[in-house]
Protein: Superoxide dismutase family protein
Organism: Paraburkholderia denitrificans
Amino acid sequence: MGKGNDWPAGLAAGFASRLASRFASQFAYAVPVVAGCVLLSGCAGFMGQQDKRATAQLLPTMGSQVRGTVSFVERSDGVQVNYNLAGLPRDSDHALQVHERGDCNAADASSAGPVFAPAADRLKPGVRVEGDLGNIHADSNGVASGFIVAPDVSLDGVRSVLQRAVLVHREPIDPYAYPQRGTGTALACGVIRAQ
């Protein structure tokens, strides 16, 4: 016999063929499984957790020229409210508020109802309600652009601003003043819709 690996040629070829076939079939199953795992983990990392988003196109009320967009992005510390508005009186401050109803059909936006306050906070003197987002400032060109973080609202649940109206008012507001004074007439109104 010879040198130790003297298998008959046919037997060695058959063994090698079966070994290659078995390896190929296991490899054929393993490749898609590994590739699928890599793709899914890559997509999850690429996509990340999607932020909830909404936007409102504000149109002028009767006699006003104010228009623009207000967008909402839910973050861990609240909702970031980005605004870009034009046509405001120059060098002026204005209240930005979410109102109860997503209805801007009235010429003066009164169809939007009262300021959004899901808790009974509106009944307590000196307490800021959730719909009072804050005041915005128009520059010397009548443009207001920036953002506010609103920690007391969300884009789902009982404190959701979706399908409500966002209004820009003629006057600024002091949310802690008592008795609360009005914010004047609305200059623009838009319905908040999910993106």
In short: The chain has two domains: 1-48, 53-194. The chain has a mean pLDDT of 82. The radius of gyration is 31 Å.
